[in-house]
Design a protein that fits this description.
Strand content: 25-35%
CATH topology of the largest domain: Spore Coat Polysaccharide Biosynthesis Protein SpsA, Chain A
Strand order of the largest sheet: 5-6-4-1-7-12-9-13
Structural class: alpha/beta
CATH superfamily of the largest domain: Spore Coat Polysaccharide Biosynthesis Protein SpsA, Chain A
Shape: elongated
Number of helices: 6
CATH architecture of the largest domain: Alpha-Beta Complex
Number of strands: 29
CATH class of the largest domain: Alpha Beta
Distance between the termini: 41 Å
Largest sheet: 8 strands, mixed
Length: 333
């Protein structure tokens, strides 16, 4: 199997972490988001992936000089201008030569444990042009809502319905199995939305199906969800990976609870870290307090400073000693 992974977005909701790093290259407990996504694909028989690149493509290319991740071969397709989701998939699939067989397309910022093999098998049973993975959510108003009939055929594709008006809470989970004929619906070089234009046309033609599969699923595109994904790997919600890097330096009288401390990070005397992510090379000064927040790589948090309520500190930024920050982005946009 082959897959197109969409990684071209600007990651604006995760700024300032994404000012110099694409969001799919952000660490999720020491392993990039992209590596976790592709490793799951590889477990289910995907052997080749093309990255649909736009923002900071060189970061991806330089990070994987061998041209593979987790044993999966990589191709790169760099857009000269943003082509939206449909245009990006069409461009990347053609660039990599994925035009002669069924392929998978997915968003590179979604972390899940989807059984991709089962999704592909069900797609073959349906016999349509495309099959979407659906997942249930409490508030479907932020997503594409997808009601289906008893045979799994999609009845409508409703993008971000008003709160309280969604016909179902099963939403588009961002992984698709597509036939190469779908590329005929994606004109070369044209900007087109898969969700707003292509899928509704496929629904009208009776060619779009969906599989409802619950399980772990998080769109890691916001500070809140990104932090959740990382902590879920260490607090037992999803797994119990080590939370503290082997070479991190933590003072004996510092307190670190339900948090991640990355490679080469330092937590000095009397500091309190709770429900937070401290990325590689960051330094937390004496007596500082970091609660439910994210500290980017090589950042310096001054002594006695407080970061609270999802404050996000960018790469190499210095927070002045004794200052308090509630739900801030540092540096500010």
């Amino acid at each position: 199997m082959r897959a197109v992974v969409l990684v071209g977005g600007f990651g604006t909701r995760l700024r300032p972490l994404t000012l110099s790093t694409p969001k799919q290259m952000l660490p999720v407990n020491g392993v990039t988001m992209l590596e976790r996504v592709i490793a799951n694909l590889g477990r289910h028989g995907v052997t080749e992936v093309v990255l649909a690149l736009g923002y900071l493509p060189q970061v991806f290319q330089e990070a994987y000089p061998t041209g593979e991740i987790a044993g999966v071969k990589l191709h790169y397709a760099v857009e000269s201008e943003p082509l939206d989701t449909g245009g990006a998939i069409g461009f990347a699939a053609r660039e990599a030569g994925f035009t002669d067989q069924t392929f998978i397309a997915l968003n590179g910022d979604v972390i899940n444990d989807l059984n991709v093999s089962q999704l592909v098998d069900q797609h073959k049973t349906f016999g349509g042009e495309g099959t979407i993975h659906l997942t249930p959510v409490e508030d479907p108003s932020r997503f594409g809502v997808v009601p289906i009939d008893a045979d799994g055929r999609v009845e409508a594709f409703i993008e971000k319905p008003p709160a309280g008006e969604a016909p179902t809470n099963w939403i588009n989970a961002g992984t698709y199995v597509l036939e190469p004929s779908v590329l005929d619906r994606l004109p070369e070089g044209q900007k087109i939305s898969l969700e707003r234009a292509v899928f509704p046309d496929m629904v009208a033609a009776g060619q779009l199906f969906a599989v409802q599969q619950a399980g772990y699923w998080v769109d890691a595109g916001t500070p809140e969800s990104y932090l959740k994904v990382a902590l879920d790997l260490v607090n037992g919600v999803r797994s119990s990976e080590p939370a503290i890097a082997a070479d991190a330096l933590i003072a004996d009288d510092a307190s670190v609870t339900n948090s991640i401390v990355g490679f080469g990070a330092q937590v000095e005397s009397g500091a309190i870290i709770d429900g937070s992510m401290i990325q590689s090379g960051a330094r937390i000064g004496s007596g500082a307090r970091v609660v439910n927040s994210i500290v980017g790589p090589n950042a310096l948090i001054g002594s006695g400073a407080e970061l609270l309520d999802l404050t996000v500190v960018g790469d190499s930024f210095t927070v002045e000693p004794g200052t308090t920050h509630f739900a801030e982005k540092l540096p500010a946009e």
